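Hey L., structure's done. Input below.
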Amino acid sequence: MPVFDNAEQRDAQWKIFGNDPQWKEISAKPENENTVSVSHIDIILMHSTSYSDY
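Output:
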């Protein structure tokens, strides 16, 4: 599970990941086409509690 301090940090890090040349190369390969079908994504930002291990 990725961990971010806030939504702005999450968005910035996913933008960096999506623009990474190595990711673009890997995701463009024919053998990686249609390997994952995502029809819906729920984005939930959770915060640790005082009794959390993290």
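The chain is about 35% helix and 0% strand. The CA atoms of residues 32 and 38 lie 14 Å apart.

-- N.
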